[in-house]
Design a protein that fits this description.
By secondary structure, this protein is mainly α. The chain is about 75% helix and about 0% strand. It has a domain of about 110 residues: Alpha Horseshoe (Serine Threonine Protein Phosphatase 5, Tetratricopeptide repeat). Helix 4 runs parallel beside helix 6 and helix 6 runs antiparallel to helix 7. The termini are far apart.
């Protein structure tokens, strides 16, 4: 195995992480991404995949740290801002969630899924008019969801 022969080769650790993910060995994949980022601290793809996997395991503080690394290293990466928003939302940091989603939609204005989740976050803050506008953008860009579940208001 390449990682046993050349542990300093960050790409090998990254590829090992991808392979382990595909095998469903998420904890081991995270360890491989850890090694890749230790060897190459600016390895945005490894940080991003690590964040996704940590988020899937509900390790949200750690996921947020990984997405912070990505957005600091590659601020133009809209998907990283989106996933940072998800981690923030899971941590109950709704105002920061909205800011992350704002950044994602600035970078990728047709990012329908982000508009949808931004609408939900805005609704949680009682910003219903903005939430309605964000949901309309989500629909305009092709997002299909049940509006009563996402944006229902109390009577």
């Amino acid at each position: 195995m390449v990682t046993n022969l050349k542990p300093e080769f960050a790409d090998a650790w990254y590829n090992k992480g991808i392979a382990l993910e595909k095998l469903g060995k998420i904890d081991e994949a995270i360890l491989a991404y850890d090694q890749a980022t230790k060897l190459k601290p600016d390895f945005t793809a490894a940080w991003y995949n690590k964040g996704l996997n940590l988020g899937n395991l509900c390790r949200n503080e750690e996921a947020l740290f990984a997405f912070d690394m990505v957005t600091n290293l590659k601020p133009e990466f809209a998907d990283a801002w989106y996933n940072k928003g998800i981690a923030l939302e899971k941590l109950g940091k709704i105002d920061e969630t909205i800011l992350a989603y704002d950044q994602a939609t600035k970078l990728k204005p047709d990012f329908a899924e982000v508009w949808h989740y931004k609408a939900i976050a805005l609704k949680l803050r009682g910003r219903f008019q903005e939430a309605d506008a964000a949901y309309e953008k989500a629909k305009a860009f092709g997002y299909k969801a049940n509006p009563s579940s996402a944006l229902s208001r109390p009577p």
